[in-house]
Design brief:
By secondary structure, the chain is of the alpha/beta class. It folds into four domains: about 1-80, Chorismate mutase (Chorismate Mutase Domain, subunit A); about 85-165 and about 255-260, Periplasmic binding protein-like II (D-Maltodextrin-Binding Protein, domain 2); about 170-245, D-Maltodextrin-Binding Protein, domain 2, CATH 3.40.190; about 265-350, Alpha-Beta Plaits, CATH 3.30.70. It has twelve helices and 15 strands. A hairpin with a 3-residue loop joins strand 3 and strand 4 (about 145). Helix 1 (about 1-35) crosses helix 3 (about 65-80), helix 2 (about 45-60) runs antiparallel to helix 3 (about 65-80) and helix 11 packs antiparallel against helix 12. Catalyzes the Claisen rearrangement of chorismate to prephenate and the decarboxylation/dehydration of prephenate to phenylpyruvate. It holds the Pfam family PDT.
Length: about 350
Amino acid sequence: MSDILKNCRDQIDAIDEQLLKLINARAALAREIGALKGEGPIYRPEREAQVLRRLLEKNTGPLSAEAVTSIFRSVMSNCRALERELAVAFLGPQGTFSEEAANKQFGGLSSPKPCISIDEVFRMVESGGADYAVVPVENSTEGAVGRTLDLLTTTSLHICGEITLPVHHCLLRRQDGNGEIRRVYSHAQSLGQCHEWLNLNLGGVERVSTGSNAQAAELAAQDPFAVAIASKRAAEIFDLTILAENIEDDPKNVTRFLVLSPHEVEPSGKDKTSLLLAAKNVPGAVVSLLAPLAQHGVDMTKFESRPSKLGIWEYVFFVDIEGHYQDPRIAKALYELEQCASLLKVLGSYPVAVI
């Protein structure tokens, strides 16, 4: 048995050496491409999406699709860093699901920029303090994140990517906490996602909304009579005990995040376009907004209304469609849509999330 084990380990060592040589060769080519491109974005979401899709098609296991994407995102991240470290802003502090989403998309963060609010995340990139922003936009249980939608109406940034993150909540408490629980700290979205669990297990306990789950964990670390709903990573960062895991009401709980940048993204072959629309104040106006999409066979994957903040009972609509705005049929539909809408803003075309 020891001879067989040694042989297997020797083979692994040899493969590791081959991998190291190949990864360095890849990094050298990536650096050469960067020099040929000159000025311009280092991070190309459309190209990275194409790479990941191709690898997933060729993957025969035993590694899962999630493992393959995680490995190669890390490889691409380290190759990018040879040109320049990317600063990525997200809702902080460290330990939030926003940070987890940013790490997933970028293969790790070399220059993280945690912010105290979603507003600051937008401002950080708009002012040049960060290269990219990662913001939550909707949850499968609680729906849209209103503040993100409101800021999208006025920002000059473009959506250049999306991230889907399975969200699993934990109930956390400081190590020496063993008395009565009087408060539950968490972000409002997370309190909603764990509503029924809280009713069943902590029905009479005050629920306190915080700016982020990581902030909730930080507060719980200072309060012997409190618990927090946050991630496992937040438990590690703030040295908290995990009292219960996976307390979200929906085991398939997923949050969708957007990646924002000052530049637009070229087609990747499997894209999505997000639009901001407003209808003219005439009968049938909303129906007319959808007609050009139907006439050109454009699939709509999201249609959400939001108060416009410009007048009482006036609304804008956030629409997601399949395809890139440069696709001929999408371009035709958008041209006709512009004729019948009082407002049309293309928020961005970007690759559909790869796992």
